[in-house]
Amino acid sequence: MAGYAVRGLKKSYNGSPVFQSVNLEWNEDGIYCLMAPSGAGKTTFLRVLMGLERPDIGILEGFKGRRIGAVFQEDRLCLNLNAAANILLIDPVCRGEKLRQELLWLLPQESLDKPVSEYSGGMRRRVSLLRALLSRGEALLFDEPFNGLDTESRRAAIEYVRKRRGGRLLLFTTHHEEEAEALGACMLRWNGAERTWIQE
Fold first, then answer.
1. What would the pLDDT profile of 117-160 be if each residue is shown by its tens digit?
2. Bridge-partner residues for 173, per DSSP?
3. What is the pLDDT of residue 146?
4. Between 121-133 and 151-164, two packed helices, what is the crossing angle to 10 degrees?
5. pTM for this one?
6. How far apart (Å, rounded) are the C-alpha atoms in residues 9 and 196?
7. Which residues touch 151 (CB under 8 Å, ≥6 apart)?
8. pLDDT number for residue 2
9. Please, are residues 63 and 49 in contact by the beta-carbon 8 Å criterion?
10. CB pairs under 8 A, 24+ apart, for 145-148?
11. Containing H/E element for 159?
12. Beta strands at 186-191 and 31-34: parallel, antiparallel or unpaired
């Protein structure tokens, strides 16, 4: 039995459909990749699942009342705080020295006491990933989580996602099939003619 589902989901802006007739089911412990060209509505779809936007019609099952660990396209960090302080804002699963050790999986030690305003874009992206994975979220919704990372950082980030996902649903968007393959994700392919996703 699926832990999460959407049935007959439709969203439009000014009368133009973004997506429509979306019917998908996801296991609670599954990994799924949402593929579509830019502008096809991937971000809007995730925002609907998070409850940040309302669909025109349709039913969402399994999301209501559950915490979501999210990575947005923009990093949404407090730039005057260091990485640990940013993560502590969301009541993470670990604190103190244990949190510091988690940060070292993706960040250089010399960066840990600096405000994230001094971080590169790729380092900020890694903080966003750490924050989501160390959250108490019961499902993980990531919008292009590896965007802006170089090859080595992307490899480390993917490995960290595999290590810290903890059997939670992971639904993420990307333009790179190799990221989906590295995570062993089930593909959700965009059908542009119908403006919906097809689950492989």
1. 999 999 999 999 999 999 999 999 999 999 999 999 999 999 99
2. 34, 143
3. 97
4. 10
5. 0.95
6. 9
7. none
8. 59
9. yes
10. 145/71, 145/172, 145/174, 146/174, 146/176, 146/179, 147/73, 148/121, 148/122
11. helix 151-164
12. parallel
